[in-house]
Amino acid sequence: MPLVEPKSHVMKIVPYIAGEAKIPGFDSPVKLSSNESPLGASPAAIRAYADQAGKLELYPDGAAVELRQVLAQAHGLNIEQVVCGTGSEQLIDCVCRAYVSPGDEVIFTEYAFVCYLISTMAAGGVPVRVPEKNLTADVDAILDRVSPRTKVVFLANPNNPTGTWIPRAELHRLRRDLPEHVLLVVDAAYAEYCDQDEYSFGEELVEAEDGNTVVLHTFSKIFGLASLRVGWARAPREVAMALHRVRGVFNVSTAGQVAAIAALSDTAHTRAARDHNDKWLPWLDGQLRELGLDVTPSIGNFLLMHFDEAAKCQSADAFLRGRGLILRPVANYGLPRSLRLSVGLDEDNRAVVSALAEWLDSNR
Ligand SMILES: Cc1ncc(COP(=O)(O)O)c(C=O)c1O
User: Based on the domain organization, do 328 and 272 belong to the same domain?
Assistant: First the structure.
C-alpha cells in the first residue's frame, strides 16, 4: 500500500537537535548542553511534584486555573492574559497555529532559537531570516524585511544560542515601527537572569485589552523544571483567547502545575540560582578570554565561544567529551566554529576551563 504523504512543507523541516546528555563510558557526564539550572529545582517544587504521585489517574486542570492565578497575581496581570503551555516551545507553536496561514511570512533573526523556524514551517508559513550585526538582532534589518504578508516577528531577548540582547529603547522602537498587522512575540526564556538597566523583555508592551505584543516565559531555566515542560504567555486578552483555542486541551500536567506554583513561591531558591549565575557567568567569560578564546558577551545562563576553524571547534568538543563534559555544538545554527556552554556547578565550570586550557596547550 502506498504511504499517505504528509504535507510537503512538513517534510522540509529539519528535526530539532537536542543537547546531548550521554557520553559512552561515563556514568554521569556533566551536561552543559541545554541551559538547565545547575542548582536544580526548588525543594518545595520537588515536594509538590512528589505529593501528587498518588493521583496519577486523574486528568490535570486543563485550564491551569490556579497556576494562571498565581502568575497573574505575581505579575500584575488579569488571569485572562495568561496562557500556559507544555513548555514555552508549545506556545511558540500555538502562535503559529493560531496566526500563520500558508504563505504568511514570519520574521526572526539569523541565529534565532530554532523552534521559530520549525513552527513556522509546520504552519506552512514562509520563514524570513534577517541578518544580525555582531551576532545581535538588528532592529533596522528586521523592519526592512516587513511586508504586507508579515504576520509574526519572533525575537528572543536575550537570544539563544548567542546570549546577546537589544535594549528597551530598541525593543520599543521595533514595536512602534512594526505595522499593526504584525504580532511581536518576545521570548523571555532567560529574562530572570538579566538585570541590566537598559534591559527589558517588553512586559510594558503587553496591553490589557488590545495590542499585538506577546511575551513568552518558561519554568525550564531559572526555575529548574525543564523535565516537567511548563511555559506561559502573557498576552493581550484577545491574543490569549486565540492561543487557548489551539493549545493542547490538557497541556500542562498536574505535576507541572503544582511544581511551578511551588517554584514561584520559593524566591530564595530563585535568588540563589540568579546569584550563582551572576558569579559564574563573568568568571567563565573572563577565564575563556584569558585563554585566548573569542567569547560573545552573554546575559543569559550560557555563553558562546568561538574557535578559528570548524575543525578546531570539533576537536575541542571531542576533547571536552573525553573529560566527561558535554557542551553544545551549534553548527546547525550556522555557527560551525562555535560551542555553547551553559553555566554549571562550581566544579563543572572549573573543569571546563582547565580542560580547554589543556586542549589549547596542544592545539595552538
Ligand atoms: C530562547 C528559548 N525559547 C524557548 C525555549 C524553550 O523552552 P521550554 O523548555 O519552555 O520549551 C528555549 C529553550 O532552550 C530557549 O532557549
Answer: yes
Residue numbers of the domain that contains 285: 10-41+268-361
* Centroid of ligand 1 to alpha carbon of 146 (angstroms): 25
CA 227 – CA 243 distance, rounded (Å): 23
Structural domain tally of the chain? 2
Nine-digit cell at 160?
539563544
Q: Is residue 31 part of a domain?
A: yes
> pLDDT tens digits, residue range 106-120?
999 999 999 999 999
Is 243 exposed, middle or buried (CB count within 10 Å of its CB: 0-12, 13-18, 19+)?
Answer: buried
Q: Residue 108 and residue 129: Cα distance in Å, rounded?
A: 5
Do 205 and 275 fall into the same domain? Answer: no
C-alpha cell at 167: 535594549
The verdict on the CB of residue 348 being under 6 Å from ligand 1 is no
Task: Assign residue 21 the CATH number of its domain.
Answer: 3.90.1150.10
For residue 292, the CA-to-ligand 1 centroid distance in Å is: 30
Q: What does pLDDT average to over the chain? A: 96
